[in-house]
């Protein structure tokens, strides 16, 4: 009897275990099915009507007739027209200032000439003198260059003493004549200005300009002579 009872017990435990596993499986399937139903309801739930805002219905505004029998424009049209007028207004006045600004320098120059007529007169005299003196300096430097080239072509040699002997007297005389004419013009301008401060300032400016022009003419002539001298030396 004891041996049969011992053999029965393991089978009983196996049966109980199998039944328990079956129950757990069924419960798991049932729980999964319920969760799936709840999830479907949540996904397919309709949107509440309270969240949908109704579209506003258009309103018709009554327009009152004017005295002439015409309907007055709605306020929106009046505001739009006013806005366009305000936006178009700044573009109008800005069209003329550039032309006025361009005319300012010319007006200033004309005003300066009108305030100082002596300056305009003597500027013309100084310009004429400057042109004549520069032309004379160019002529003399051209003669020196031609003399050097001719001597080189004939096989001769040209020295600095020879050039000084040939051209220095004429060059000095030409420069002295330009200085004399310039001093004469300055003397006339001094009489016109009568010792005024503006006149003295203008005379100083003319003297500085004449000295600069004379120095530039000398450098130009010297460069041409040295170029001819160097070409002959090669």
UniProtKB/TrEMBL annotation:
Specify residue ranges for compositional bias: Low complexity. Answer: 93-115
For region Disordered, the annotated ranges are 46-116
Q: Where are the transmembrane segments?
A: 12-33
Tell me which UniProt keywords the record has, alphabetically: Membrane, Transmembrane, Transmembrane helix
Listed name of the protein: Uncharacterized protein
What organism does the record attribute this protein to? Cohnella fermenti
């Amino acid at each position: 009897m004891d041996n049969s009872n011992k053999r029965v017990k393991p089978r009983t435990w196996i049966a109980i275990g199998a039944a328990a596993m079956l129950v757990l499986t069924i419960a798991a399937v049932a729980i999964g099915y319920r969760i799936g139903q709840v999830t479907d309801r949540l996904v397919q739930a309709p949107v509440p009507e309270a969240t949908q805002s109704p579209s506003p219905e258009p309103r018709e505004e009554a327009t009152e007739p004017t005295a002439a029998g015409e309907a007055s424009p709605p306020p929106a049209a009046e505001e739009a027209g006013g806005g366009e007028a305000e936006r178009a207004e700044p573009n109008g006045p800005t069209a003329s200032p550039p032309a006025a600004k361009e005319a300012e320098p010319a007006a200033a120059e004309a005003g300066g000439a009108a305030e100082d007529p002596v300056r305009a007169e003597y500027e013309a005299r100084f310009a004429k003198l400057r042109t004549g003196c520069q032309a004379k300096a160019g002529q003399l430097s051209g003669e020196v260059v031609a003399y050097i080239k001719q001597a080189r072509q004939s096989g001769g040699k040209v020295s600095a003493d020879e050039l000084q002997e040939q051209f220095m007297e004429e060059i000095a005389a030409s420069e002295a004549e330009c200085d004399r004419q310039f001093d004469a013009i300055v003397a006339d301008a001094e009489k016109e200005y009568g010792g005024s401060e503006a006149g003295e300032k203008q005379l100083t400016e003319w003297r500085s300009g004449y000295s600069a022009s004379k120095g530039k003419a000398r450098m130009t002539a010297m460069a041409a002579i040295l170029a001819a001298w160097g070409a002959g030396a090669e």
